[in-house]
Amino acid sequence: MSDWTTATLEKIIAADDLKVAPFRDDGKTAGTPTWIWCVAVEGQLYVRPWNGKSSRWYASAMAQQAGQIVAAGETYDVTYKAVDEDRFDAVDAAYRAKYTGKEYLPDMIGEGPRSATVRINPRESL
Fold it and tell me: Is 1 domain-assigned?
């Protein structure tokens, strides 16, 4: 597993235009990019699906564990990993800090999206 550089992570978070595209069933073709809110906690990139674990992109991300993201004008090869419950509060705090006053914030820190928190890491070259 690889980590984001500080500069890249800051660029992604500041742009706030992240789109997830997990691989399709063939494990090679990126799916349709889906725009999603993103936050950083302790140098790691996190996202949550609006529809929680029933989200199609989430199901693909968990099945394939890899794909791409498009953010800040760049496309990155990435891995997707479900997050343990012990990280939920820190990710909630990051969502509150970044999206204070946004209409959808209460839903994004609600049980459905919270239970489907995903960490995204850059994928090492093969």
Answer: no
Q: What is the CATH number of the domain that holds 32?
A: 2.30.110.10
Residue pair 5/124 in contact (Cβ under 8 Å)? The answer is no
Nearest-angstrom CA–CA distance, 126 and 123: 9
Which DSSP helix (H) or strand (E) runs through 109?
none
Q: Give the sheet arrangement for strand 34-35, strand by strand.
A: 34-35, 19-22, 66-71, 74-82, 118-122, 44-47, 38-41
The model carries a pTM of 0.94
Tens-digit pLDDT profile for the chain (126 aa)?
A: 569 999 999 999 999 999 999 999 999 999 999 999 999 999 999 999 999 999 999 999 999 999 999 999 999 999 999 999 999 999 999 999 999 999 999 999 999 999 999 999 999 754
- Length of the chain in terms of residues written: 126
Residue 27's domain comprises 6-122
Per the structure, the count of domains in the chain is 1
